[in-house]
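Fold these two proteins, one after the other.
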Amino acid sequence: MSCSLFYRVSESNENRLISSFTAVFPDLNALKSEFQIVFDNNAGKKTSEKVDEVMGYLTEFYGKADKDNLNRWLNSNFKF
């Protein structure tokens, strides 16, 4: 999804382009399968360490995510 971020100058009612970017939204079912592999490979670790591994994986392949949001999603999908 292509997005653009603008700054609105109120005095002149002008919109100034700050940046354009492409938002990435992975398929959640595919992501769940990928995370399961990470969990399986880290079976002996504590839950917090597993979450850190998933966060690292997510950041490396998809970009930075909000950790609180990730924790809520993991809790609802993996019952942590």
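Now the second one:
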Amino acid sequence: MLKSRTFFLLLSLTMTFAVDAFSYATKPPSSSVISPRKVLMIGDSLSVGPFGDSLQDFLISTFSDAQVGFIAACGSSPEHWLQSEPQFVSKCGYRLKNPKDSSKSQVGRFEDGRPPRPYPVPKLETTLNYWKADLVIVQLGTNWFDVLAESQSEHVMANLDGILDHFAQVIAKCPSHPKLIWVTPPDCYKFRKVQSLVTAAIKRAASRNQFRVIDSSKMIQYEPGKSGGDGVHLATASADEWAEKVKKQLRSMISISASVNSRGTATGTLADYSE
């Protein structure tokens, strides 16, 4: 009887260790928690505007001026940043904060009816190799509203899915192994019927490629004449409201430790990317 009990006890322990080993093997690796030292944000016209002003200030205050790069181009979509696609030149505005030379930081917008200088959108592969960021925050997708307003065919949706996968894979294959957080477009009065399609496409890509999403679709409600004048772009008050809610989610993903590195700048820890 004693031998029988001993046998079953050993068998139970063996099965427990086996289950624990399997559970450990299937858990996200510890590398999913990182300490971002270089952050890059990429965006479209919404990031050229006051939303970008707020996010840029937030990132600099969270990390440091030398740790943050920011590039935004009016009219740009994810494909315009890929090396495999033709050069895209923005003629309606840009934001450029060069982390290696703050004197080159600049924002080009319409002033007194005069357009900013044309801005050739840099390619993602080149930008990542130059900056070597380990955290990339993307705010793109707004300019797909026009595409989907014309057609929502399976071919169009499959093309957008492929672009998002390519974009995410370029980031994942970068030698600095950056993590990706994608900020979806906020509520848009002019293209409200198709906005959900862009949000859904980004979320599908996130599931396939293991990156995080900040869903902006319900953070604010676009009110024509109050939120902005064209049904898409935001006036400062609405842009700031959106920015505050995005920053709140970013704070929950990025915790800043009290310790500082050898250069005297704070070290950030990106929360576990497993959902």
